[in-house]
Amino acid sequence: MTSKKVVELFYDVVSPYSWLGFEVMCRYRNVWNIDLKFRPAFLGGIMHGAGNKPPGLVPKKYSYMTKDLHRASNYFRVPVRPPTDPFEVMFQKGSLSAMRFVTAVQHMEQGGDKQVEQVSRELWRRIWSEDKDITKPESFSEAAKKAGLSDSEIEKALKLCTSQEIKEKLKHSTEEALNYGAFGFPMLICHIDGKPEMFFGSDRFELMANCI
User: Fold this and answer.
1) Domain total for the chain?
2) 132's torsion region: left (phi>0), alpha (psi -120 to 50) or beta?
3) Is the terminal CB of the chain with fewer CB neighbours within 10 Å at N or C?
4) What's the distance, Cα to Cα, between the start and end of the chain in Å?
5) Residue 71: which CATH number?
6) Which residues are responsible for catalysis (predicted)?
7) 174 CB contacts (<8 Å, ≥6 apart)?
8) Among all residues, which ones are annotated catalytic?
9) Grouped pLDDT means (10 residues each) for the chain, 212 residues
10) Please, which residues have CB within 8 angstroms of residue 173's CB and are 6 or more apart in sequence?
11) Model confidence, pTM
């Protein structure tokens, strides 16, 4: 029996394209018979480390992105609706605390990635569909409760996400993404015959399928 090929998905909930890629890969993992590994990381660290500039800071790219997200949302049936002030959400508030919380949930989880999948999805839904905050502890609690975590699990994750251990774990994941060559998210690494193949964005699924 052939073992499943491993695909790592590096993402940040502040990125709407990451949400698209995330949902599509969740749908395809059984069809492609792959072992999908969620790799929460910090997009701000990626942009800084790669010397990249966010598309939101380039007027023409931002204008295109707004239209493109609407088309992609309809096509992939992911309810992406930009927040009232995307600049504030993405560049002033950011996602560092949120990604530490996601990392804490993943660190706690035993026997799979179901909880981190659900929590990530609920955080995306808050920021990119409901125009809600993702920077405060109560925001994490609301997202985690909708994701099915118990009160005790949420309390534990809230404490853990401020620990040095989780901060270092998120930093390490971000550095791993940079070492693979990341310059933005989503980034997917397909491990084919011992060789990592990198794919960026949410529009390379046909090439990925061919590679796999």
Assistant:
1) 1
2) beta
3) N
4) 16
5) 3.40.30.10
6) 15 (nucleophile)
7) 41, 42, 45, 46, 49
8) 15
9) 85 97 96 96 96 82 90 96 88 93 96 93 97 96 97 97 98 98 97 94 94 90
10) 10, 39, 40, 41, 103
11) 0.94
